[in-house]
Amino acid sequence: MFKDLQLFFKEFKSNFISTGAIAPSSPQLARAILKPIRKRPSRPIKVLEVGPGTGAFTFEILKLLKVGDTLHIYELNEKLFSYLNKKIAAKLKGEHRIDVQLLHTDIRTLKSGLKYDYIISSLPFVNFDSRIFCEIMDNYFRHLAPEGIISYFDYILPHRLRLQFLKPGEHQRVKRLLTTMKSYLRRHQVAYDHVWLNLPPASARHLKKPLYTEIPEKIKNN
Questions:
Q1: Phi, psi dihedrals of residue 89, rounded to the nearest 5°
Q2: In whole angstroms, what is the distance from residue 135 CA to residue 68 CA?
Q3: Hey, what domains does the chain have and what are their CATH numbers?
């Protein structure tokens, strides 16, 4: 655990855009993000994880997978990729009951035709501009199975407070991004959960392809 924190903080300082967080996600946030997978069907499922970092969600996902399931993981940060690759190899130890692939590449290179039942994203969306956010989210939806679920989190911080600390150029970028993110949530969010036991506190969000007009019910903590 200490090695995870040490590496994560080091990469946060040197690669803020690609890392985005100051510490690995908490077990409480992992439970909230992975709640849809715990309700999985009995048939084999396909899971895509993007931006796993040191694996705070990855190893919890593996606990929920069964024989015949597939897990594809995309990590762009080279040091985090190498670190996670060793951890996964040590965890699986040659076990082949689950198809696990870790790829060191941009998620926007994802091959067409692949469909996933669950997409788990830890990308730091607030660090991107609205165009890149749309590219990534549209890519997720293209590769989402008809009844699939996209799960991601963002940090709980009042938008007005956040914007006050930004330079004018960044202020406009973040303002446009937040407007775009709200648009996606209005159309696709089906559930959410606030997780206070995380650094910093976060909201776990779950999206689906169908359009919903009702306000999503808040998921109760387990």
A1: -60, -40
A2: 30
A3: 2-213 (3.40.50.150)
C-alpha distance across the termini of the chain, in Å: 24
| 176: nearest Cα among 124, 126, 127, 130 | 130
As a whole number of angstroms, the longest Cα–Cα distance in the chain is 52
Q: Which residues contact 122 (CB under 8 A, 6 or more apart)?
A: 21, 25, 49, 50, 51, 52, 53, 56, 57, 152, 153
- Structure confidence at residue 168 (pLDDT): 72
Tokens 């690669």: give the residue: 15
Looking at residue 199, its pLDDT comes to 86
Over 70: is that where the pLDDT of 71 sits? yes
Q: Is the pTM of this model over 0.85?
A: no
pLDDT number for residue 9: 43
The pLDDT tens digits for 183-196 are 999 999 999 999 99
Q: Which residue has the tokens 């648009």?
A: 183
